[in-house]
Amino acid sequence: MDHRIMRTRTLLALTSSGLLWGTTVPLSKVALADWGPAWLTVARFTLAALPLAWIGRRHLRRALTPGVAGWGVAGYGVVIVLQNAGIERTSVSHAALLIGAMPVLVALLTVGLGRGRVGPVAWLGFAVALGGIAVISVDGVGAASLAGDALVLVSLLFAAAFMVAQPRLLAGRDPVAVTAVQLAAAALGTLPVAVAVDGVPTAAPGAAPMAAMVGLAVGGTLVPFTLFAWAQARISPEVAGAFLNLEPLVGVVLGVAAFGDPLGVPQVVGGAAILAGIGLNAVPLGGRRTGPAAAGPAVTNPAAGSTAGSTAGPRELTGAGVG
Asked: Where is the EamA domain (predicted)?
């Protein structure tokens, strides 16, 4: 196939992934009208795990280990339950912008654990992005609240730990099979929490919340995961990771347009700071380029279901992922 055609298809796949992942916070907000935070997690991951398990069925046995399943419960189940509880209490725009800072938190944790290194430009990016988070979180106007923002931030800390641990879990295993096991484990592990905290459902969700849940499972998990994984094998990780920056932008636009979230100075300044920080960290450091993502395992972002390329061992980090 012509190189230009393949590159165009790859970029379209990456763009589609970023746009679809940007809908996860708005869709969660709609679904939470009738779903409890834990029940929404159970339903979403059950629906997403089944087709992934079929696709990766030949590799499930190798992926089915206590470590993989345990991190699935913590990295997907705990993360999304906390995130759903936060989204229920804050605005779509706030949640989307905070989740957009995930690459910076992952890079900071990786450096703190001695698994990577960064230069002064990256540290500047960390500071700018974290400053943006602070500006957004302390501004509780409209539907936003400090409690909701705090729950989202706590979920991101769990998600960052998961992303740092994920490369070792993926080493020598099929990423689709690993994701299927982790999503299934997250659904099973969250089930007792759903019964205890949300209670046993007494009525079926309405049409809009049900459609939003299906959209989260299919459009927010299955489709973008498949498109991004396909594109990763054809382009360098730092380029692929840059498309993850579409997520907060889409979330903010939908929050303002569809949910009436206020767009004031704190949101603009904080959002611009987060995006600027991500941009500073997206610049490859050290002058060493990374090859296609096939050179290393995929790292799944539980906060939105996204994936970024990674290679093992100490390395320079970019805000678009650990790679």
From this structure: 11-137, 147-280
Q: What CA–CA distance (Å, rounded) separates 299 from 175?
A: 9
Q: Is 50 exceeded by the pLDDT of residue 40?
A: yes
Q: Is 287 helix (H, G, I), strand (E, B) or coil?
A: coil
- Nearest partner of 259 among 90, 57, 111, 81, judged by Cα: 90
Q: Assess contact for 262 and 114: CB atoms under 8 A.
A: no
pTM: 0.74
Average pLDDT over residues 232-241: 61
Which range has the top average pLDDT, 2-11, 76-85, 231-240? 76-85
* E strand residue ranges, the chain: 298-301, 306-309
CA distance 88 to 145: 10
At 198, which amino acid appears?
D
**Among the listed residues 313, 303, 312, the one whose alpha carbon sits nearest the alpha carbon of residue 106:** 303
Examine the pLDDT at 138 and tell me if it is beyond 50. yes
The reported pLDDT for the residue numbered 209 is: 96
Kindly provide the b/e burial profile for residues 227-242, where b requires at least 16 CB atoms within 10 angstroms of the residue's own CB.
bbbebbebbbbbbbbb
Q: State how far Cα 148 lies from the chain centre.
A: 18
* DSSP per position, 60-105: HHHH--HHHHHHHIIIIIIHHHHHHHHHHHS-HHHHHHHHTTHHHH
Q: Which pLDDT value is given to residue 235?
A: 67
Is 308 in a helix, a strand, or coil?
strand
